[in-house]
């Protein structure tokens, strides 16, 4: 069999979550589409997960953070680390895929933007008139080439399922891969620790994605069903907004940037994507 | 105390939540991990409701597993004037029952298309959308006639459980790729339901907002950022 050498493509050479590990029992299979390519995911009776393309070629596989991860290209790096995933005492919550008719990059950008809370998650993650986002810090961490936003503070009426009443929540945001966003937020029952809430976005097409939210929380009071419902309620509020964004693709053309009003993290994220050449789901030239 | 086996994204469970909110009936919610956990298909839940569907309302020994039955019970018990379920007026009552039956076709078409688009449920989605549009045209025609007579709701001149039963999957249909653009009478009726005292939202169904005075830049930013 002759190996065709494929051109490097940042969208293909990346890891993506494509299923919940626990939902794939031995002998079971599921089909999905990743960056436009149909793939087949199955768990061997022995427990190993095999991902293959329609021509039978095998894709690399990892099982981490509750999900099956794969790539249709050849990633030159391993899956990013989320050290909190292994921390004692956290509940790990698989929330399930929500399909959204939007660019995968838009899904990430919306997740990073705190200014939408009072308008989209009214009386839960934000409330009028406390809509001000105080300036915070954004940087690109050289070592891992990740976008970070730190020292974000926001008033929230019900910050988490475990929050009783309004509190000022501290946030940190981290983008370890183009379609993964992680937020760290004050953890009401455990001061000093951070709750971890992520979205793993599986690009299906440039304007269609499955979003797999996942959480690693300190919460002893709520059932898994309650935690899942809370996160699904939040994410479905985002879905209505995401499906109506114009333009559909994320503008990366410098002429289309709106630097004055757009959120700082979003500006850093867009620049970082452009530098990496990650244009799948992006609009690179003014239409 | 009433106990509702509930799922936050279920339009059918929302019928019960909305009715209880409007009637001011207190209840205890039992969240069921419908998705991704499929808890409604596990033995414990099937013991309660062999059909494996949500919502389920429990009141003492009474177990109700159908949203129309739940609305009937709630209105019978928590609406002393009896306007939500006009039991004393055979013609009105029969029309209410007719729209309750109709509401099932909304669940099967618009509701199914939404689950397909939202959580990737296998379905012939084009057939479901076509079915939803047929049901919407029927509803549109009726609501147009009602509006002509000066009535805002489905039956006679008052809101009934028929409106609560039909409202969710019509309101949520854009989540399943079914727009409201061609249905002006339906849009007016959705707004009328939203104006009912005690109305509550669910993800995908937004309350009507009075137009607020806001700084123009803030609105622009919210729109840009989502
Ligand atoms: N007869 C039921 C049907 C409601 C219904 O279809 N519920 C959905 C959730 S919204 C369900 O439980 N479906 C079961 C399934 O899809 O597995 C009612 O109206 O109460
Ligand atoms: Fe959001």
Number of strands of chain A: 17
Oligomer: heterodimer
**For this structure, what is the CATH class of the largest domain in chain B?**
Mainly Alpha
CATH class of the largest domain in chain A: Alpha Beta
Helix-strand pattern of chain B: EHEHEEHHHHHH
Q: List the strand order in the largest sheet of chain B.
A: 2-1-3-4
What molecules are bound to this protein? glutathione, fe (ii) ion
- Estimated radius of gyration of chain A: 19 Å
Q: What proportion of the residues of chain A is helical, as a percent range? A: 10-25%
Structural class of chain B: alpha+beta
What can be said about the biggest beta sheet of chain B? 4 strands, mixed
- H/E element sequence of chain A: EEEEEEEEEHHEEEEEEHEHE
CATH architecture of the largest domain in chain B: Up-down Bundle
Largest interface: A-B, 42 and 28 residues
What proportion of the residues of chain B form beta strands (DSSP E)?
5-15%
Distance separating the two termini of chain A: 42 Å
**Broad shape of chain A:** globular
Q: What would the average pLDDT of chain B be, to the nearest integer?
A: 93
Any overview of this molecule?
- The complex is a heterodimer of chains A (287) and B (226).
- Chain A has 287 residues and is an alpha+beta fold.
- Chain A folds into two domains: 10-70, Single Sheet (N-terminal domain of TfIIb); 83-283, START domain (Alpha-D-Glucose-1,6-Bisphosphate, Chain A, domain 4, 2-Layer Sandwich).
- Chain A has helices spanning 104-112, 117-120, 224-242, 264-276, and strands at 16-20, 29-34, 37-43, 49-53, 58-59, 61-64, 67-70, 91-94, 98-100, 137-141, 146-156, 167-177, 180-186, 194-205, 208-217, 250-251, 282-283.
- In chain A, a hairpin with a 7-residue loop joins strand 13 (180-186) and strand 14.
- The termini of chain A are far apart.
- Chain B folds into two domains: 2-78, Glutaredoxin (3-Layer(aba) Sandwich), CATH 3.40.30.10; 90-194, Glutathione S-transferase Yfyf (Class Pi), Chain A, domain 2 (Up-down Bundle), CATH 1.20.1050.10.
- Chain B is 52% helix and 8% strand.
- Chain B has eight helices and four strands, in the order βαβαββαααααα.
- In chain B, strand 1, helix 1 and strand 2 (27-31) form a beta-alpha-beta unit.
- In chain B, helix 1 packs parallel to helix 3 and helix 1 crosses helix 6 (161-171).
- The model of chain B is unreliable at 211-226 (pLDDT under 50).
- Glutathione binds at residues 10-12, 40, 52-55, 66-67, 107 of chain B.
- Glutathione (GSH) binds next to helix 1 of chain B.
């Amino acid at each position: 069999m002759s190996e065709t050498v494929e051109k490097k493509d940042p969208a293909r050479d990346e890891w993506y979550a494509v299923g919940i590990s626990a939902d794939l029992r031995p002998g079971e299979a599921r089909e999905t589409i990743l960056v436009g390519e149909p793939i087949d995911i199955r768990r061997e009776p022995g427990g190993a997960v095999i991902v293959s393309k329609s021509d039978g070629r095998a894709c690399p596989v990892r099982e981490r953070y509750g999900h099956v991860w794969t790539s249709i290209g050849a990633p030159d790096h391993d899956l990013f680390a989320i050290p909190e995933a292994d921390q004692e005492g956290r509940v790990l919550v698989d929330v399930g895929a929500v399909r959204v008719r939007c660019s995968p990059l838009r899904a990430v950008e919306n997740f990073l933007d705190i200014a939408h809370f009072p308008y989209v998650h009214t009386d839960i993650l934000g409330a009028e008139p406390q809509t001000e986002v105080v300036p915070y810090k954004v940087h690109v961490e050289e070592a891992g080439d990740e976008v970070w936003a730190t020292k974000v503070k926001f008033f929230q009426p019900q910050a988490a399922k475990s929050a009783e009443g309004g509190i000022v929540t501290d946030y940190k945001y981290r983008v370890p891969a183009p379609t993964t966003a992680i937020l760290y937020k004050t953890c009401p029952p455990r001061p000093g620790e951070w709750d971890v809430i992520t979205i793993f976005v599986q690009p299906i097409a440039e304007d269609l994605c499955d979003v797999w939210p996942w959480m690693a929380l300190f919460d002893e009071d709520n059932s898994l069903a309650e935690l899942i419902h809370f996160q699904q309620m939040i994410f479905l509020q985002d879905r209505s907004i995401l499906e109506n964004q114009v333009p559909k693709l994320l503008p990366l053309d410098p002429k289309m940037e709106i630097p004055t009003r757009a959120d700082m993290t979003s500006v850093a994220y867009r620049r970082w994507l452009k530098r990496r050449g990650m244009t799948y789901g992006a609009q690179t030239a003014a239409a | 105390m009433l106990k509702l086996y509930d799922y936050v994204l279920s339009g059918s469970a929302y019928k019960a939540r909305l009715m209880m909110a409007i009637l001011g009936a207190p209840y205890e919610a039992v969240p069921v991990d419908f998705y991704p956990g499929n808890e409604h298909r596990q033995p414990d839940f099937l013991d309660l409701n062999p059909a494996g569907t949500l919502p389920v309302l429990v009141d003492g020994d009474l177990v109700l597993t159908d949203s129309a039955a739940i609305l009937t019970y709630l209105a019978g018990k928590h609406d002393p004037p009896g306007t939500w379920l006009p039991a004393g007026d055979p013609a009105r009552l029969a029309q209410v029952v007719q729209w309750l039956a109709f509401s099932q076709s909304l669940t099967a078409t618009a509701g199914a298309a939404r689950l397909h688009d939202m959580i990737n449920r296998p379905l012939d989605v084009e057939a479901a959308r076509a079915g939803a549009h047929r049901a919407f045209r029927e509803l549109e025609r009726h609501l147009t006639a009602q509006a002509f007579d000066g009535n805002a709701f489905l039956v006679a001149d008052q809101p009934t459980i028929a409106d609560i039963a039909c409202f969710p999957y019509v309101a949520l249909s854009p989540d399943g790729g079914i727009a409201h653009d061609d249905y002006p009478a339906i849009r007016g009726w959705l707004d009328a339901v939203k104006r009912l005292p005690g109305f509550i939202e669910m993800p995908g169904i937004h309350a009507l907002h009075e137009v607020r005075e806001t700084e123009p830049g803030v609105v622009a930013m919210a729109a840009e950022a989502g």
